[in-house]
């Protein structure tokens, strides 16, 4: 903002605003008063502009409810209700208007709620003029993005007249949760400008539900939210619930509403704050008239509504006095009554009420409880947190906390952090002394004591005072990493300073996850504290590159969340860079899914890998099952068993290990079966390319122990690689239709190594080693044609895979006598089932001129098996250890001919221990999506709050 040739003038304005609704053809009006404003002229960038500053601090916040005639249903007269809300506005704010009538910037306090800011922007939008002679203009106001249609009636003298109309189809973006497709809206506004400034505006709005949607929406609450007008005054109209139980006439009234508004003399007028807040106090006191009702609300702190009303009533009573029984007096009486009770839940809730009320009586009550002898340490921490939220702490509070800190040293973190938060609300004359008091608690930078340093640094950050910056910065290069990270966090309210951003850039040489995370969060909190904060381009580019190199998805998500909130061209370009790098990494990732054997080979228990848990914060993760137990019965065709297991959840860049419990119950007969999986409970994170599996099985039949299998194995998944041999795309135009032909060939290479040791029945032992590589080739071809509004195409995909599984095993078995040693070396080879897919699709452009979702016709898929699969036994020999001659494997080797265990011949069945070739994971390549990974859903940015540990 560059203002030159400033001339200031202040004058009383003479203007009024009238809000009018019609209820049963009876107008309901409200007259308003006015407020002062200051006007400055100068330049904004290269444009001549005028800056307006005004105060709207006396606007009330109550919800006004107008009611029609209250009559009975028997009289066949209707009861109608309309509501509109005026959000509370506070403080001075300014905006800049060019000589062309365009409002280019609105300035406001960074501590205000977003609803307040939106209304202030709505006030500024009353000044915006479309003076370029166009008949249609896309406009953005606090409520929506829409197209306004302008017409220009004949003007008189120097007054320029305009008429603006908006209809339902003109709404481009509407942030409220209202399905605008079902809403019929028509708004008209007559505007008069003089000398490029608005002098008068009158508007009407009609809102109704589309008749074709009435039957679908009957009994629905979809329109219970208010619908805001697009004009210069923020007015909310509310559609009622539609119910089929009412008459057709009443339903017609309920599904439509009309409103009108009028603006004169340029500025938005203000309302009588005292009158409106007294009305609000009277409304809130309807359920809190007697002491017993107040006590009931205090005792039912979980009810929410009445307890919240208590706090609002206490604040208004402090301002205007009590209406009848004082709620504050009743709350203080109840606090004294329950002060000796063991359960402190209600007392802690009362502390928060007293903190929001903020009077001297409330402050004294909190200090009395804090200094009481019978108060537990945990409750004292809650009292200290409530004191830290006082809007105007007295000198007595400040002095008492300083004495408590001096007595306890700097080991009491809650005291220090609360004291730091109080500094932010303390009078400016005391801030310098209070910051000096805190910095005196800091040990030397070379001190080995880190615990106390961390507490003081967090407290200095809570002060939001620039006096604390130089003391925080000197700890950025402390030898302890926790201290360095804490110092970065403490600078979160000062990141708008260029020197602070330079310090953060210097700290990036320590590219640990915790340091990068602290820098990102400090910038995010600083931006929320000051939205006008300039950003060092080198700093955010370095952060983006570091998060990509670390491969940490959580840090990438946090950074992208911040960069999207900033919303500049350069920040959004960095978001695209991170998204593209993640897409490339995902393309190279291997398929991580495996199957581990159940004691009954017929029922495989599947443990999928690459699962994500909320508590592991989006780290890549893998899961291995550690233990399984099965209890049940197996008699012929009937199988009944209950299975449970414990697994290890592993993967990513950190280790936050937990166990996962799994379970399955199976009842299956010859003609009837039932199966259910238990809930997965916990998970873990550990970075490792391999997967270690240790399993123990205990099998019961009739609850009698039969045998125990204790296999120990290790599986290593070899890295996988994708190689695109060729990819071609060609586009040509036939008349006006662009046609695109594309084709590609991709090879996917991977493998797996397995080693295991198993103890089988009757003391038999076997060791196994196997190696399984695989190669997959994918051919992809497609053709598509598009015009301006539609795109159609076909695609053809073919996949062919060849596997080779080489493995070896040595087994020692002694089912009876004598001992047998079996050596087996072999290989499996063959083609996996090969498929070819043919499909078609079409897409339509949306009204935002981007392609909509793809509609795909069911593709034709043909799968066949190529010949040539088989097993190549290279060595298969079984030797009698008692000196007998080796026997031919085809006739007497135990692995060649499994025999029933009831036979008297010394045999052992080893066939089941031979490793089965690991199936090649099917490589599925999406066609035509072209979509980038979806950005993470985040809650909206919240205001940075003082740092407090959990109580």
Automatic annotation (TrEMBL):
Residues 892-909 have a biased composition (Low complexity). PANTHER family: VITELLOGENIN 1-RELATED (PTHR23345:SF15), VITELLOGENIN-RELATED (PTHR23345). GO terms for molecular function: lipid transporter activity. Residues 933-951 have a biased composition (Pro residues). The keyword ATP-binding does not apply. Keywords: Disulfide bond, Glycoprotein, Signal, Storage protein. Residues 293-511 form the Vitellogenin domain. This is Vitellogenin domain-containing protein. Residues 882-951 are annotated as: Disordered.
